[in-house]
Design brief:
The chain is an all-alpha fold. The chain folds into two domains: 39 residues, no CATH class; 36 residues. Helix content is 85%, strand content 0%. The chain has three helices and no strands. The protein starts with a helix and ends with a helix.
Length: 75
């Protein structure tokens, strides 16, 4: 599903519903549409970001160790 398709579904939901049903149907349409898109939740994103931060720190530490080893071999 594309964003254009989702927007079309929302337009249809808005024109076909009135009042109290409108919010419920828009929420359902958005939930279904977003589930079909390749998106992640904020929580999933934050978990991945934290993992990448840890990996970046490990890479920096290993790079420093390699650099120190290379310098010690040269002297």
């Amino acid at each position: 599903m594309t964003l254009d398709e989702l927007a079309a579904q929302l337009r249809d939901a808005m024109s076909a519903n009135s009042g109290a049903d409108l919010q419920k149907n828009i929420r359902a349409t958005l939930s279904a549409g977003l589930a079909k898109l390749d998106v992640v939740t904020r929580q999933e994103f934050e978990i991945q970001r934290e993992m990448l931060d840890v990996l970046r720190k490990q890479i920096d530490e290993l790079s420093a160790q390699v650099e120190a080893l290379e310098k010690s071999k040269k002297t």
